[in-house]
Amino acid sequence: MYLTYFNGNWNEGNVPLYGAMDHSLWLGSSVFDGARAMGGKLPDLRPHLERVITSAEKLGLRCPLSVDEMEALVREGVAKFPADAELYIRPLVFGTDGFLIPVPEASQFALTLFDAPLPPFAGFSACLSTMLRPQPTMAPTDAKASALYANSTRAMREAKARGFDQAIVLDAEGNVAEFASSNLFIVAADGAVVTPKLNGTFLAGITRARVIALLAQEGVKVEERIVGPEELLTAREIFSTGNYGKVTPCTRFEDHTMEAGPVARRARELYLAFTEAS
Ligand code: PMP
Protein backbone atom coordinates (compact mmCIF):
# COMPACT_ATOMS: atom_id res chain seq x y z
CA MET A 1 0.00 0.00 0.00
CA TYR A 2 1.14 3.57 -0.78
CA LEU A 3 -0.01 6.19 1.67
CA THR A 4 0.66 9.90 1.23
CA TYR A 5 0.10 12.77 3.61
CA PHE A 6 -0.31 16.09 1.85
CA ASN A 7 -2.14 19.30 2.75
CA GLY A 8 -3.60 17.86 5.94
CA ASN A 9 -4.96 14.64 4.41
CA TRP A 10 -3.87 11.02 4.11
CA ASN A 11 -4.59 9.40 0.76
CA GLU A 12 -3.78 6.05 -0.81
CA GLY A 13 -2.10 5.64 -4.16
CA ASN A 14 -0.16 7.98 -6.39
CA VAL A 15 -1.57 11.28 -5.14
CA PRO A 16 -0.83 14.30 -7.40
CA LEU A 17 1.27 16.91 -5.60
CA TYR A 18 2.51 19.22 -8.32
CA GLY A 19 0.82 22.19 -9.83
CA ALA A 20 1.73 23.07 -13.40
CA MET A 21 3.50 26.21 -12.19
CA ASP A 22 5.41 24.73 -9.27
CA HIS A 23 9.01 25.87 -8.91
CA SER A 24 10.20 22.36 -8.06
CA LEU A 25 8.91 20.90 -11.30
CA TRP A 26 10.50 23.51 -13.54
CA LEU A 27 13.60 24.50 -11.60
CA GLY A 28 14.41 21.50 -9.41
CA SER A 29 13.77 22.91 -5.93
CA SER A 30 12.94 19.78 -3.99
CA VAL A 31 14.65 17.85 -1.22
CA PHE A 32 13.73 14.56 0.34
CA ASP A 33 14.90 11.92 2.76
CA GLY A 34 14.33 8.26 3.42
CA ALA A 35 13.92 6.16 6.53
CA ARG A 36 12.56 2.77 7.47
CA ALA A 37 9.99 1.30 9.80
CA MET A 38 10.75 -2.30 10.69
CA GLY A 39 8.28 -4.02 12.98
CA GLY A 40 7.26 -0.69 14.48
CA LYS A 41 10.89 0.39 15.10
CA LEU A 42 12.09 3.59 13.47
CA PRO A 43 15.90 3.56 13.54
CA ASP A 44 17.49 7.02 13.31
CA LEU A 45 14.18 8.59 12.24
CA ARG A 46 14.95 11.95 13.84
CA PRO A 47 18.31 12.53 12.10
CA HIS A 48 16.60 11.84 8.77
CA LEU A 49 13.86 14.36 9.60
CA GLU A 50 16.40 16.90 10.83
CA ARG A 51 18.19 16.51 7.50
CA VAL A 52 14.99 17.31 5.60
CA ILE A 53 15.00 20.69 7.32
CA THR A 54 18.67 21.43 6.68
CA SER A 55 18.51 20.14 3.08
CA ALA A 56 15.54 22.46 2.47
CA GLU A 57 17.40 25.46 3.91
CA LYS A 58 20.34 24.81 1.59
CA LEU A 59 18.02 25.24 -1.39
CA GLY A 60 16.32 28.35 -0.04
CA LEU A 61 13.24 26.34 0.91
CA ARG A 62 11.60 26.31 4.31
CA CYS A 63 10.25 23.05 5.64
CA PRO A 64 6.82 24.04 6.97
CA LEU A 65 6.91 21.39 9.73
CA SER A 66 9.16 20.94 12.74
CA VAL A 67 10.94 17.64 13.44
CA ASP A 68 8.40 16.88 16.18
CA GLU A 69 5.50 17.53 13.81
CA MET A 70 7.04 15.34 11.12
CA GLU A 71 7.76 12.57 13.61
CA ALA A 72 4.14 12.65 14.84
CA LEU A 73 2.93 12.34 11.24
CA VAL A 74 5.31 9.47 10.51
CA ARG A 75 4.05 7.62 13.60
CA GLU A 76 0.45 8.32 12.60
CA GLY A 77 1.12 6.93 9.12
CA VAL A 78 3.02 3.86 10.35
CA ALA A 79 0.08 3.03 12.65
CA LYS A 80 -2.14 2.69 9.55
CA PHE A 81 -0.13 -0.38 8.47
CA PRO A 82 0.07 -3.81 10.17
CA ALA A 83 2.33 -3.73 13.26
CA ASP A 84 5.01 -5.98 11.70
CA ALA A 85 5.15 -4.09 8.36
CA GLU A 86 8.48 -3.21 6.76
CA LEU A 87 7.97 0.25 5.36
CA TYR A 88 9.87 2.90 3.50
CA ILE A 89 9.27 6.46 4.67
CA ARG A 90 9.86 9.37 2.29
CA PRO A 91 9.42 12.98 3.44
CA LEU A 92 9.61 15.62 0.72
CA VAL A 93 9.82 19.41 0.72
CA PHE A 94 9.34 21.18 -2.59
CA GLY A 95 9.13 24.71 -3.91
CA THR A 96 5.71 25.72 -5.18
CA ASP A 97 5.32 29.35 -6.23
CA GLY A 98 7.72 31.35 -8.35
CA PHE A 99 8.39 29.11 -11.32
CA LEU A 100 9.61 31.93 -13.56
CA ILE A 101 12.28 33.16 -11.16
CA PRO A 102 15.25 31.27 -9.76
CA VAL A 103 14.13 31.59 -6.12
CA PRO A 104 11.16 29.54 -4.90
CA GLU A 105 8.64 31.70 -3.04
CA ALA A 106 6.83 29.04 -1.00
CA SER A 107 7.36 25.43 0.03
CA GLN A 108 5.12 22.45 0.66
CA PHE A 109 5.63 19.24 2.60
CA ALA A 110 4.51 15.74 1.65
CA LEU A 111 5.15 12.38 3.27
CA THR A 112 4.83 9.00 1.60
CA LEU A 113 4.94 5.59 3.27
CA PHE A 114 4.83 2.29 1.45
CA ASP A 115 5.46 -1.42 1.93
CA ALA A 116 9.08 -2.20 1.10
CA PRO A 117 10.76 -5.23 2.67
CA LEU A 118 14.38 -4.71 3.67
CA PRO A 119 16.46 -6.09 0.77
CA PRO A 120 18.15 -9.40 1.67
CA PHE A 121 21.87 -9.63 2.48
CA ALA A 122 22.61 -10.59 -1.12
CA GLY A 123 25.60 -9.51 -3.16
CA PHE A 124 25.32 -6.90 -5.90
CA SER A 125 27.73 -5.95 -8.68
CA ALA A 126 29.15 -2.50 -9.32
CA CYS A 127 31.24 -0.84 -12.00
CA LEU A 128 33.25 2.36 -12.01
CA SER A 129 31.15 5.23 -13.29
CA THR A 130 32.40 7.76 -15.81
CA MET A 131 30.34 10.38 -13.91
CA LEU A 132 32.00 12.30 -11.10
CA ARG A 133 30.42 13.77 -7.98
CA PRO A 134 30.09 17.54 -8.35
CA GLN A 135 32.15 19.73 -6.05
CA PRO A 136 30.38 21.81 -3.38
CA THR A 137 30.88 24.97 -5.44
CA MET A 138 29.05 23.36 -8.36
CA ALA A 139 25.95 21.88 -6.74
CA PRO A 140 24.21 21.60 -3.35
CA THR A 141 26.19 18.49 -2.47
CA ASP A 142 25.50 18.89 1.26
CA ALA A 143 21.72 18.62 0.73
CA LYS A 144 19.69 15.58 -0.18
CA ALA A 145 18.44 17.50 -3.19
CA SER A 146 16.41 15.74 -5.85
CA ALA A 147 18.30 17.68 -8.52
CA LEU A 148 21.52 15.85 -7.62
CA TYR A 149 19.89 12.56 -8.50
CA ALA A 150 19.84 13.43 -12.20
CA ASN A 151 23.54 12.50 -12.12
CA SER A 152 22.98 9.42 -9.94
CA THR A 153 20.41 8.31 -12.48
CA ARG A 154 22.88 8.80 -15.33
CA ALA A 155 25.45 6.73 -13.43
CA MET A 156 22.90 3.97 -12.80
CA ARG A 157 21.75 3.93 -16.42
CA GLU A 158 25.35 3.59 -17.53
CA ALA A 159 25.92 0.76 -15.01
CA LYS A 160 22.77 -1.12 -16.08
CA ALA A 161 23.76 -0.76 -19.75
CA ARG A 162 27.05 -2.45 -18.87
CA GLY A 163 25.25 -5.27 -17.01
CA PHE A 164 26.01 -4.08 -13.46
CA ASP A 165 23.59 -3.42 -10.60
CA GLN A 166 25.29 -0.31 -9.22
CA ALA A 167 27.86 2.36 -9.98
CA ILE A 168 30.79 3.60 -7.92
CA VAL A 169 31.33 7.31 -8.37
CA LEU A 170 34.61 9.16 -7.89
CA ASP A 171 35.02 12.74 -6.75
CA ALA A 172 36.58 15.44 -8.93
CA GLU A 173 40.03 14.57 -7.54
CA GLY A 174 39.65 11.00 -8.80
CA ASN A 175 39.16 9.41 -5.39
CA VAL A 176 36.31 7.07 -4.42
CA ALA A 177 33.27 9.00 -3.19
CA GLU A 178 30.31 6.61 -2.88
CA PHE A 179 27.88 4.41 -4.78
CA ALA A 180 25.27 6.17 -6.93
CA SER A 181 22.75 6.00 -4.08
CA SER A 182 24.56 4.85 -0.94
CA ASN A 183 27.85 5.21 0.92
CA LEU A 184 30.77 2.87 0.43
CA PHE A 185 33.02 0.93 2.79
CA ILE A 186 35.87 -1.44 1.97
CA VAL A 187 37.88 -3.96 3.89
CA ALA A 188 41.27 -3.16 2.39
CA ALA A 189 43.86 -5.74 1.37
CA ASP A 190 45.58 -5.27 4.77
CA GLY A 191 42.31 -5.96 6.64
CA ALA A 192 41.60 -2.34 7.63
CA VAL A 193 37.97 -1.26 7.48
CA VAL A 194 37.90 1.97 5.52
CA THR A 195 35.37 4.47 4.21
CA PRO A 196 36.07 7.62 2.16
CA LYS A 197 36.64 10.64 4.39
CA LEU A 198 33.86 13.20 4.08
CA ASN A 199 34.97 15.98 1.76
CA GLY A 200 31.68 17.70 1.01
CA THR A 201 31.19 16.13 -2.41
CA PHE A 202 29.04 13.20 -1.29
CA LEU A 203 26.31 12.64 1.24
CA ALA A 204 27.36 12.39 4.89
CA GLY A 205 25.17 9.31 5.29
CA ILE A 206 23.26 8.78 8.51
CA THR A 207 23.61 5.00 8.09
CA ARG A 208 27.34 5.47 7.42
CA ALA A 209 27.73 7.30 10.74
CA ARG A 210 25.63 4.72 12.55
CA VAL A 211 27.66 1.80 11.15
CA ILE A 212 30.93 3.51 12.10
CA ALA A 213 29.61 3.95 15.67
CA LEU A 214 28.27 0.39 15.93
CA LEU A 215 31.53 -1.14 14.69
CA ALA A 216 33.51 1.09 17.08
CA GLN A 217 31.50 -0.33 20.00
CA GLU A 218 32.73 -3.78 18.89
CA GLY A 219 36.32 -2.53 18.87
CA VAL A 220 36.45 -2.28 15.05
CA LYS A 221 37.85 1.09 14.09
CA VAL A 222 36.74 2.40 10.70
CA GLU A 223 39.45 4.51 9.05
CA GLU A 224 38.03 7.57 7.32
CA ARG A 225 40.59 8.43 4.69
CA ILE A 226 41.11 9.01 0.98
CA VAL A 227 40.37 5.81 -0.97
CA GLY A 228 41.93 5.47 -4.42
CA PRO A 229 39.97 3.56 -7.07
CA GLU A 230 42.80 1.01 -7.38
CA GLU A 231 42.01 -0.16 -3.84
CA LEU A 232 38.65 -1.43 -5.06
CA LEU A 233 40.46 -4.04 -7.14
CA THR A 234 42.32 -5.51 -4.17
CA ALA A 235 39.64 -5.06 -1.48
CA ARG A 236 38.66 -8.12 0.53
CA GLU A 237 35.16 -6.70 0.95
CA ILE A 238 33.18 -3.80 -0.45
CA PHE A 239 29.82 -2.92 1.04
CA SER A 240 27.24 -0.18 0.93
CA THR A 241 25.33 1.66 3.65
CA GLY A 242 22.14 3.61 3.16
CA ASN A 243 18.74 4.11 4.64
CA TYR A 244 17.03 1.80 2.15
CA GLY A 245 19.22 -1.32 2.14
CA LYS A 246 21.05 -0.60 5.43
CA VAL A 247 24.18 -2.74 4.92
CA THR A 248 24.55 -4.67 1.66
CA PRO A 249 27.61 -6.47 0.26
CA CYS A 250 29.05 -5.74 -3.16
CA THR A 251 30.41 -9.08 -4.42
CA ARG A 252 31.73 -7.97 -7.79
CA PHE A 253 33.56 -4.79 -8.76
CA GLU A 254 34.25 -4.76 -12.50
CA ASP A 255 36.03 -8.15 -12.97
CA HIS A 256 37.08 -8.53 -9.31
CA THR A 257 34.78 -10.89 -7.38
CA MET A 258 34.59 -11.10 -3.59
CA GLU A 259 32.67 -13.01 -0.94
CA ALA A 260 29.98 -11.29 1.09
CA GLY A 261 32.45 -10.90 3.94
CA PRO A 262 32.36 -11.05 7.72
CA VAL A 263 32.64 -7.29 8.35
CA ALA A 264 29.61 -6.47 6.19
CA ARG A 265 27.68 -9.33 7.78
CA ARG A 266 28.56 -8.15 11.30
CA ALA A 267 27.71 -4.54 10.44
CA ARG A 268 24.30 -5.66 9.17
CA GLU A 269 23.66 -7.72 12.33
CA LEU A 270 24.67 -4.79 14.51
CA TYR A 271 22.37 -2.47 12.58
CA LEU A 272 19.44 -4.87 13.01
CA ALA A 273 20.17 -5.21 16.75
CA PHE A 274 20.32 -1.40 17.01
CA THR A 275 16.93 -1.24 15.22
CA GLU A 276 15.46 -3.75 17.64
CA ALA A 277 16.66 -1.66 20.60
CA SER A 278 15.49 1.68 19.17
N1 PMP B 1 24.64 8.71 -0.88
C1 PMP B 1 23.57 8.91 -1.67
C2 PMP B 1 23.77 9.57 -3.00
C3 PMP B 1 22.29 8.52 -1.25
O1 PMP B 1 21.24 8.71 -2.05
C4 PMP B 1 22.16 7.90 0.01
C5 PMP B 1 20.81 7.47 0.47
N2 PMP B 1 20.17 8.54 1.09
C6 PMP B 1 23.29 7.72 0.81
C7 PMP B 1 24.52 8.13 0.33
C8 PMP B 1 23.19 7.11 2.18
O2 PMP B 1 22.75 8.06 3.08
P1 PMP B 1 21.87 7.70 4.35
O3 PMP B 1 22.54 6.61 5.08
O4 PMP B 1 21.80 8.95 5.12
O5 PMP B 1 20.55 7.25 3.82
- Going by CATH, what is the homologous superfamily of the largest domain? D-amino Acid Aminotransferase, subunit A, domain 2
Largest sheet: 9 strands, mixed
Q: Give the helix level as a range of percent.
A: 25-40%
Helix/strand/pairing class, anyone? alpha+beta
What percentage of amino acids are in beta strands? Answer: 25-35%
If classified by CATH, what would the architecture of the largest domain be? Alpha-Beta Barrel
Coarse shape: globular
In short:
By secondary structure, the chain is α+β, with helices and mostly antiparallel strands. Helix content is 26%, strand content 29%. Bound molecules: 4'-deoxy-4'-aminopyridoxal-5'-phosphate.
Description:
- The chain is an alpha+beta fold and 278 residues long.
- It has two domains: 2-115, Aminotransferase class 4, branched-chain amino acid transferase, N-terminal domain (D-amino Acid Aminotransferase, Chain A, domain 1); 124-277, D-amino Acid Aminotransferase, subunit A, domain 2 (D-amino Acid Aminotransferase, Chain A, domain 2).
- It has helices at 23-27, 45-58, 67-78, 149-161, 206-217, 262-277; strands spanning 2-6, 9-12, 30-32, 35-38, 86-95, 107-115, 124-132, 166-170, 176-179, 183-187, 193-196, 222-225, 237-242, 246-253, 256-257.
- A hairpin with a 5-residue loop joins strand 10 (183-187) and strand 11.
- Helix 5 (206-217) packs across helix 6 (262-277).
- Bound molecules: 4'-deoxy-4'-aminopyridoxal-5'-phosphate.
- 4'-deoxy-4'-aminopyridoxal-5'-phosphate binds at residues 34, 152, 178, 181-183, 202-203, 205-208, 241-243.
